[in-house]
Amino acid sequence: MGTIYQDRIMTIPEVHPEHKEYWDAAVEGKLLIKKCASCGEFHYYPRVICPHCHSDKTSWFEAKGTGHIYTYSVMRHGKPYAIAFVELDEGPRMMTNIVDCDLDEIRIDQKVKVVFKQSGNQENPGSFIACFTPIESD
Amino acid sequence: MSIKGAAYIAGAFEHPLRKAPDLSVAAIHAECARGALADAGLTFGDVDGYFCAGDAPGGVLSMVEYLGLKVRHLDGTDIGGSSYIAHVSHAAQAIAAGKCRVALITMGGRPRSEGRSGVKQKIVAANVPDTPFEIPYGPTAVNEYAMAAMRHMHDYGTTSEQLAWIKVAASHHAQYNPNAMLRDVVTVEEVLASPMIADPLHRLDCCVVSDGGGALVVVHPDIAKNLNRPLVRVMGAGEAPKGLQGGKTNLTYSGAVWSGPKAFEEAGVTPQDIKYASIYDSFTITVLMQLEDLGFCEKGQGGKFVADGNLISGVGKLPINTDGGGLNNNHPASRGGIVKVIEAVRQLRGETNPEVQVKNCDLALVHGTGGGLSSRHGSATLILERV
Ligand SMILES: [Zn+2]
Question: What sign has the CA pseudo-torsion B220, B221, B222, B224?
Fold first, then answer.
């Protein structure tokens, strides 16, 4: 039977000036993270100043868009949805939703890939949001 | 400069109401302030330092005006529900530095009357840097703590039965508290049979949503010694923020790993010395993780530590939250920190219900986690001694 994913209205995020490229890329189906030229580390959510070494030599990096589930929780009160942290193959762990699957089958360490869902609704559409869906195991 | 012995908690008051539709939030603060000052044997005119957090409507300026205070020291530190534990430390620091001699800390709110709850999406403030990368995903109080619980279970084999024991202990204590919101003793089976809210947390893994509040009066040692009250001395404190660390976060531990050792070091005591602990219990997982992080047991052994009644006064090794805690007694304004301090003061004074009073309770720990366990939280630890 399972708990099949249902679309939900996602709150439209504010677009802060330092994140314009991130949201523009999301429309194209690309997940951007930040890479620091000084310490070589990736970070997320993206910032002007690297949170690891405080260099301002940070630049946008297109993530592969694949990773695995670090943790998750399916909300059972009201319309079900799965909040999660996904660990990207590049390293950073990011808050997200697991979508387009049976929510009862979600597991820690499951491999996932990014899919984008538009926030807001038809009358008031917002930015595209990076969500993840399980990859069929091979 | 150390705060060890720099100040005493002379007054403590927990508002008796758990539903207050006819009181304004400011009035709850004022009633709590009056109660704590009366408890100490002091008056509003004695107060020269004032502390409040995000629940205080209008912040320090509106509250100081509303309360009619004349103060020379202000502190509006807000780290969520643990703010008031940190305020005791800050008050001791201010007293040690000569900035004030009678510090009043107030908190209060009415989420129950206002229909708020832990399954509702957080309120969105403008320009917060992390919000755009979280709020679309529907984070709530419950599913954030649930994600930490899920990973803890994965890494350490912690079970829902073990988490349920924390609620069972709270309910055992609450049966003796006439003001507690929930007074029925529950079993592990009943916790597991309660509705799932956000995997793996059931309804009975969650704290109550209650109106109410509390207040504390922290004073200079010279003042404490002239009051006709038992002496509860501040011995040590620590505070630490924990966030998502640029994506390197590990959700199986809390900021208590940093705030706890600082408090123990300052007080010159160890976890084994603690007779009673007030441990923040927004959810059962909060308790388990904090007990590990504070060193009451090894990391990953929290499940075994909390099971089989080990947290029940008179039964187990570490009695906690003998008022019933946030799980059963009170979690006013969705911020449990001040009630945690108040119950520790009651224990140290020997003023709790005899059924839950810890014998020879001369050393107590208070610890809080304010905010989100899977995003940002403020950890605050406080160690208190009866002199
Ligand atoms: Zn860097």
Answer: positive
Kindly report whether the global pTM for this prediction surpasses the value 0.80: yes
Domain segments of chain A as ranges: 17-134
> What's the complex ipTM?
0.98
| Short-list B119, B154, B374, CA closest to A96 | B374
Burial zone of B157 (CB within 10 Å; 0-12 exposed, 13-18 middle, 19+ buried) = exposed
**Per-residue model confidence (pLDDT) at position B279:** 98
CA–chain centroid gap for B68, Å, is 27
DSSP string, B243-259: --GGGT--TT--THHHH
Place of tokens 């123990």: B264
B197-209 confidence digits (pLDDT tens): 999 999 999 999 9
Q: How far is residue B87 CA from its own chain's centroid?
A: 12
Query: Side chain identity at B352, as an amino acid letter?
Result: T
- Residues of chain B contacting A55 with CB distance shorter than 8 Å: none
* Residue recorded with tokens 């988490």: B163
What amino acid occupies position B357?
Q
- Residue B325's closest CA among B310, B312, B314? B312
| Helix, strand or coil, per DSSP, at residue A129 | strand
A18-36 pLDDT tens trace: 999 999 999 999 999 999 9
Distance (Å) from the alpha carbon of B252 to chain A's nearest alpha carbon:
10
pLDDT at B122 over 90: no
Cβ neighbors of B272 (< 8 A, separation 6 or more) are: none
CATH number of B36's domain: 3.40.47.10
Cβ atoms within 10 Å of B197's Cβ, excluding its own: 25
Q: What residue type is assigned to position B209 of the chain?
A: V
Residue B164: inside a domain: no
* B158 assigned to some structural domain: no
Look at the block and give the residue holding tokens 């429309």: A27
A15 chain-B contacts, CB cut-off 8 A = 132
A85: helix, strand or coil: strand
Decide if B163 is inside a domain. no
Residue B320 reports pLDDT greater than 60? yes
Q: Is the pLDDT of residue B18 over 60?
A: yes
Number of domains in chain B: 1
Kindly list the distances between the CA atom of residue B339 and the CA atoms of B41, B106, B211, B214, in Å, as whole numbers in the listed order: 20, 11, 12, 7
Q: Do A108 and B154 touch (CB under 8 A)?
A: yes
DSSP class of residue B115?
A: T
Mean pLDDT of B139-165: 98
Q: Name chain A contacts of B209, Cβ cutoff 8 Å.
A: none
Class of domain A17-134: mainly beta
Give the largest CA-CA distance in chain B: 55
What is the distance in A from the centroid of ligand 1 to the CA of A50? 5
